[in-house]
Amino acid sequence: xxxxxxxxxxxxxxxxxxxxxxxxxxxxxxxxxxxxxxxxxxxxxxxxxxxxxxxxxxxxxxxxxxxxxxxxxxxxxxxxxxxxxxxxxxxxxxxxxxxxxxxxxxxxxxxxxxxxxxxxxxxxxxxxxxxxxxxxxxxxxxxxxxxxxxxxxxxxxxxxxxxxxxxxxxxxxxxxxxxxxxxxxxxxxxxxxxxxxxxxxxxxxxxxxxxxxxxxxxxxxxxxxxxxxxxxxxxxxxxx
Amino acid sequence: xxxxxxxxxxxxxxxxxxxxxxxxxxxxxxxxxxxxxxxxxxxxxxxxxxxxxxxxxxxxxxxxxxxxxxxxxxxxxxxxxxxxxxxxxxxxxxxxxxxxxxxxxxxxxxxxxxxxxxxxxxxxxxxxxxxxxxxxxxxxxxxxxxxxxxxxxxxxxxxxxxxxxxxxxxxxxxxxxxxxxxxxxxxxxxxxxxxxxxxxxxxxxxxxxxxxxxxxxxxxxxxxxxx
Lengths: 240, 227
What we know:
The structure holds two protein chains of two kinds.
Chain A: H1 16-20, E1 25-34, E2 37-47, E3 51-56, H2 63-70, E4 78-83, E5 86-87, H3 88-91, H4 93-96, E6 99-102, H5 114-124, H6 131-140, H7 156-169, E7 174-178, H8 186-201, E8 205-209, E9 220-225
Parallel strand pairs in A: 3-8, 3-9, 6-7, 7-8
Antiparallel strand pairs in A: 1-2, 1-4, 4-5
Helix pairs in contact in A: 5-6, 5-7, 6-7
Chain B: H1 6-23, H2 25-46, H3 50-83, H4 85-90, H5 96-124, H6 130-157, H7 164-192, H8 197-225
Helix pairs in contact in B: 1-5, 2-3, 2-5, 3-5, 3-6, 3-7, 5-6, 5-8, 6-7, 6-8, 7-8
């Protein structure tokens, strides 16, 4: 397997076509060490608006670590993540306005109702929404009638739906979703696929870690497999 | 897309934590009752000797407030850490300093203010004069925010560790000593010399210092703990 040399960023010349196809997220030679184990190294990829990256790999192969590094929660051992040609660690809070992260934990408060969870989390992500809009989002996520129920009374799948509702309440361009489909039923999984399609059609980017097949149509889908060969992996179809 | 105004973000954090505290009132009340009971045990233990009680009152009330603050520190970040909301707070488009300060302010309103209000009542058991009771109130009013601020550093550093509760105590109690010295000093001075100003000013200086540096240190500790 050849290993693309992308140490340092070489800007592509701006022609009309390449301007629209410019990659806004670049992951350059990323590696991650947990304890004394090297989870992965030499991860390279770049994503343009409207593209979807599916991260697969065995349990413990570093999917969550990769996603946490990309959203800026963890620091990589080597390499860097660039958003619009700037290292995300130097962008700081500016980067977070563009990112919504739904981890494998739902990030819900059991004591708060579904509606409160959504309004508070969207206010904290910088885009306060009213109860009406929150209500319509919950309805879209199939949680109508559960709005005023404390989150601890929701089922696992409903909690997941509520966590994912956060994606609709803000206009972040980069969605980072860890084990998105866990506990979701078929209807919800289909709903998520269509939401992702919609997001990509509007020029968004999504990075999804999941084992399940994503049923998305007409999108620029790349796959990154973290298990197996450790060095020099790039997604299928990646070009330098 | 513009970043939300810092003030509204701060307000949302405080409102959120106050709402959560209200939904889990039992936790909050248990800290307050701990404080009341510990302070009330001393008159029973050392006997009803007014001179002795007056002499030990500032120390007893302050140490009890310190331990109560320590008890409540576990709640500051641990719940948010376990349900994943802390992760969400770390990726908010607002400086983490403000988020942390908001959480500390809410923590103080919930666990510090009730102690401050209760303290003069507790002081009556120790036969303190009116001036001493007032000084006890003032010194705790300035001192308890410092306890919350310094304590937040320990709470952030021990997140997710087993036996974190004991570790917080070992990390934070030594840092509480200056607050304890000047807090009790203020009350003592108001009993003996009648001029506690120096102690109060020093407590105020500590508050300002902690207000500037503690949220910053806590933010750094949180980033490390969640990596």
